[in-house]
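Field notebook, page 403. I keep forgetting to write these up properly, so this time I am using the form the group agreed on. The chain and the ligand, fe (ii) ion, are recorded exactly as supplied. Prediction of the bound pose follows.
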Amino acid sequence: MEADDDRQMAGFKDFYQFSAPTRVIAGRDLLDSVGFEFAKEGASRVLLVTDGGIRATGLVERVLAGVTDSGLEVAAIFDAVPQDSDGAAVASIAELARETGADSFLALGGGSVIDSAKVANLLFTHGGEARDWEGYYGLPRADDGAGRALELAPLAAIPTTAGTGSEVSFAAVIKDRDAQLKYQIGDFPLIPRLAILDPASTATLPQAIAAATGMDALTHAIEGYVSRDWNAHTDAYALHALRLIRANLERAVHGGDETARGNMLIAASLAIVPTTSGALGIAHSLSHPCGAIYNVPHGVANAINLPVTIEYNAAGGEDIAARYRDVAELLGVEPRGEVGHALAERVRELVGSLGLPTRLSQVGVPEAGIPQLVEGAMGDACTLVNPRVPSAEDLAELYRQAL
Ligand SMILES: [Fe+2]
């Protein structure tokens, strides 16, 4: 490795910034006081954003009671967020908020519900269409763009998966169905003001979704820790997330006990924080096109793509391998042989034990699709912060290994 790269993966960094401003409340029976807490963030007339699956569980009624008991009004309920958030859904939510006089957004759901509420809030406040806002740090700022980013309406999130961590993150992933791609919008005002982590929210979560979203959280923690954009602040989040995931993920998925589910909600919200400093990697780059083109659920794609990514990255130099050794140690991997291989095998075992698919060919991705997938992965923002800089051929080989 060159000196530049050494500085990138170890030692004292030339520059980083860190922000984790969401007020998180975690514990039991918090859904009953949603309105009490959200009022403190400036909400008075709330638009509830959710999806049909959550609507069917009875959770919506409990949350609505928690909102109105504290004197807040419910402007409307939007319960038609699709599996992957898209431009049409967020436009409909923003329009509904305007029509019904809402002044705040409450997202109750998984990543696509929360991302939809974030981008709907952006359109509600600043207008335009979702795709207009693609990219990072592009939201309006005071003083001709030099000042503080203008605030959006209050947004609170109650995650029902553990999870994407979107309840505390600064980004939203939106699907462009015509272009068959997923794009990202990221900026500080998109970070929810309030996140409510209550295991009652994941009590009815299907096992397969608990497994897939838990693997997304694990992928955030690992990719965040080994990213070129790691920093000391995000390390603290990533490493404790790994401890909690090791201790709770399998219990939360198989037994579903409240303690394990509560701890996984916390783990997911810790694991995502490094991404707000830009720290992610090519497991995500490989997975985004799998979702955009073949509708592979995000967590499932990450579960499949993470092991091959670990093997590829860890072979990229001693300082990268050293980061993976930290991860391996926290996950209880025996320190023998090449760390990349040993850690990847541990992740594969975990994916298998959670009952998830382990190959892309099992989830509808054909070999003939690789060129289009590679194009998407090369253009993905997460590729830029991967510890190793991949060529298109490297990414094609990773897809072949994951098939
Ligand atoms: Fe993710």
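OBSERVATIONS:
- The CA atoms of residues 210 and 256 lie 9 Å apart.
- The chain has a mean pLDDT of 95.
FOLLOW-UP: compare against the apo run.
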